[in-house]
Structure formats: C-alpha cells, structure tokens
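[scheduler] slot 2 assigned
[scheduler] job type: sequence-to-structure, two independent chains
[scheduler] chain ordering preserved from manifest
[runner] begin chain α
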Amino acid sequence: QKLALYCCQRTIRNYYIGKTWKWWQIWIAIKPNLKCTQFSKYKAEYEQKIEVAEANIDKAIAECDAVVSVHDRLMNEKNELELALNSGGSAVQDIIDKTNRMENAKNDVQKQLDATNKRIDAERDVIDGIQQSGAKVSSDAQRLRDNIRNLEETIGKCED
C-alpha cells in the first residue's frame, strides 16, 4: 500500500509540473483526435461492420451460386447452339433454299390465280353484256311482233 501511495503522489506531482510544460499541453490537445488513441472506438465500429457482413455473406453466396448456375446453363445452351450452327450449316442453308423455292412457287401460283380471277371477271362482264343484248333483242322482237300483229289487224280490218 505504501508503494501505491508513492506512485499516486509521483503521478500527481508530475501532472502539476507538466501542466505548465507547453509540449505536454499540445500533446493533451491533439491526443483525443489521434486514431491511435481511439483504437477501441474504431475496433468496435469495424467489428460491427464485420458482423453485418458475416450476417449477409450467406445470402450473397446463395445469390452468387444462383447466378453462376444460370450462367452455366446459358453457356451450355450457347455452346449447343453454336455446335448446331457449325455442324448443321448446310442443313440450315438447305431449309432456307427450300423455303425460298416454296415462296417462289407460291408467288407463281398467286399470279396464276390473279390472272384466272381477271379472266373470270372479264367473262362475267361479257356474259352480262350478252344477257343485256339478249334482253334488248327479245324486247325488240316482242315490239316487232306487236307491230306485226297490229299491222295484220289493220290489214284485216281494211279488207273487211
């Protein structure tokens, strides 16, 4: 206990002596702002950040695994399609050629159909014209028959 008392007395005496010392006053002024003196504060802050990161690491790993699996699946599909295009290039070209031939044949048939429809329309117009002519001829013939009958009646009356 006696040593502890001597230690306290020496510390208090040095404190009062140091209070007037200018370098010690500067040290006391800047010491609270130094990072090395606030180690426990920074340690607690970083430990808290580490806890948050560790809490979210499982979720991030799961999301990363999901993305990696989707990427692998897409890469496999891409490789299969590239293989199909490289190996089946001639088959694709054959299909394109067949499609072009079919389209040309379809266009030819469409042209023939359009020409046939035009001919049908023209023949219908001709038939309508013939029917109108026939109706006119029939009406003229009927008129002439009526005139002939009237003239025959007039001749018959004149003879009487």
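[runner] end chain α
[runner] begin chain β
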Amino acid sequence: LAWANIEFLNRFLGFWLGGGAYSDRMELSDNQVISSWLPLCNDGTRIVPETQGAFCLFNVWWAKVSLAGAAKIGFVWLDFITFVALCLTLGFDSNTRMFALSTHVFFMMSFLDPTTDSFHSYPTYSSVYSWMIRAASALAVL
C-alpha cells in the first residue's frame, strides 16, 4: 500500500512532484541544501544563521517559502493524512497496519528529504524496498 501511494506521487504526479524535494532543493552559500517546499531553519544538522536574513517562526524560513512549494507540501501532507486515516479505519490486521504505516512514514520522510536522491533516479528507493520485501516474503514461505 505504501509503495503504491509513493509511486502515485512520484510517477503519476511526476510532472509536479517527481523526484521529491530533491528536485526542487536550494543550495545555500555554505554548500548546505534546504528544501524549497518547506525550508526549515533547523533540521537537526544545521541552523540557518540570521545573517542570511532568516526570519524563523515555527522553524520555517518564511522568506524562502513560495506558493508552489507551499502547494506541494500541502498536497503531500493531505496525502499522508489520508493514507494514515485509511490504514487506521480499514479492517486490516494489526501487523499489516503497522507495517504499512511505518513503511509509509519512512517513504514520506525520504521523499521530503532534499539531500537524498532516493526518488529522483531509477530504480527508486521504494522500488528497491518493494523487491526486497517480495524476495524476503517468498523466502519465508520456503
């Protein structure tokens, strides 16, 4: 389920969201990369200095937020919330539900990370992960 959803975002909506945040990343003057979808002031590894004109409220660098970036991140959040709500409301077994949710969260984090090209080049990370799961499932049956 998570694989189908991320493939929908990356391939079917590829003209708009293809490659994830890596495709629309911004490079700062000190060779650091931030997302143009949702430019964070502090992502855990770096802090955007206020000398670069960063006005940070709720950890978002508001001067760098664009309408197109806000629309993309809003759509991805809506997709994420819809997927989680469907997983929790449909009658899946607990193990299936937890696996789908954890995989989906991991794929979304990778999709929104501007420093990795996991969804920019083929095979995408989700495709490789999907084949690994299929192989492991087939071996488990044997």
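[runner] end chain β
[qc] chain β: Strands lie at 25-27, 33-35, 56-57, 60-61.
[scheduler] slot 2 released
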